[in-house]
Structure formats: C-alpha cells, structure tokens
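Final report, closing paragraph on structural work. Over the funding period we assembled a curated collection of sequence-structure pairs, and we close with a single example.
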Amino acid sequence: MSKPVPSKLASDTAMIMAAGMGKRMRPLTASQPKPLVRVAGKPLIDHALDRLEAGGVTRAVVNVHYLADALEAHVGERGNPKVVISDERDALLETGGGMVKAQSELPDPFFCLNADNIWLDGPRDAFHDLSKRWDPDTMDALLLLVPHARAANFRGKGDFHMDANGRVSRRRSGRIAPFIYTGIQLVSHRLLREAPEGKFSTNILWNRAIEEGRLFGTSFTGHWFEVGTPEAIKPTEEALRRG
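Its predicted structure, as stored:
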C-alpha cells in the first residue's frame, strides 16, 4: 500500500531517463535494456516507478531507445503512475535532448530521474523534499543531492558544492565535492529555453543556470545507491534487505 502523501507536490509528472545503452552494466545489458536489469527481485525501472507511485506522482514520461520494444512493453503494463512513451528509436538524444523532445508532454515544472535510481527515503520522500524547497521565481532546476556518507557504492570525488542558500557550483579541480547528484531533479521549462538541437547533455543547461545563479540543490534526507555496474547489485540488495 502506498504511503499517505503529507503535502502538495510541485508536479504530478516525472520524466524517467531510460533510453541509454547501459554500457557500464554489460554483460547484463547485452540482451536487455538497463532499466530491466533486476535488483532485489524487480527491474530497476520498477523501483523508480514504485517510488513515484508512493510519492503521489501520477504520470511518468519514459524515453526509450536501446531495445525499446522490450522496455515499452514492460512499462505499458503499468497502471499507476500512468506511463507515456517518448520515442527516441531513431536517435538517442542524451539527457538534455531527451527532455527537449518530451517537453510537450511535461508540465512546468516536472520531476526528472534516471531509470536506474534506487534509494530509501528519509522522513519525507524525495519528491516532497524537492517540492518543499522549490521556488519557481529563483530556480531553473533543483537537484536532489546526497552527501558521501549516504551514497552507497559511490567511489567518485563528488559533483557539487552548495552554499548556505542552496546555490550549487561544480566540483573544483583537485578537490573533493561534498555532494553527489542522485539523478533526481525538479526542472522548470525555463531551463530548456533556447536549448541546442538534437543530442546534448543537461550539463550544458546546468552550466548556464549556474552562471545565472539559478541552479539550486537540496540535501536528501534518505540513503541513495549507485547501481551503475553489475558489481554494485549484490551490496545494494544486501542493504535493501537490511532496510
């Protein structure tokens, strides 16, 4: 049974980035798209969809490219949230291009998350964490960030610094950044204005927002799992069993 929704969400819709080739997850992705790789008994994308349902998000726009038929058939069986497909079979557009292609299906603002995200919520779920902090007058995007201590399987140097007001900046060369991007964000259509055509990374849009002082972050109150490689699956499953 879904948890009760404690407060108003900033959006009823999330885009799930599910079109990638899943190269880091090989050989498991040789015959299946990465979002269908099973962790703790169910496909990765079902973990994301279940979190959306529990948080009260009622629509999911899922982009597809690699082995798209299998992924589309799987999510098509879903009743809640309602799934809409953004078809990238002809050309993989990366994260930024994917959002631009799907924009007509996305309200302003909308949640966006990677299909391989697994997390355990804190006192509030991730979507209410973002909604509580959202300010459309000052933000183009709000990133859900997690400190290293709550990022399981992560071995990198971090992604962002965050000031006392929540404005974020990139990790400085030769430094460790205290916050890691979880792959979950709340996005205004303003972020997508005058976007490049075709294939491009969201990083291009984030960099502009940083320069304009309009890219913000909020620290996640739960625990997040990096599940980018086959080696990360077993420790993630063990952690999920422990709760």
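DSSP finds six helices and 14 strands in the chain. Residues 44-55 form the longest helix (12 residues). We thank the funder for supporting this effort.
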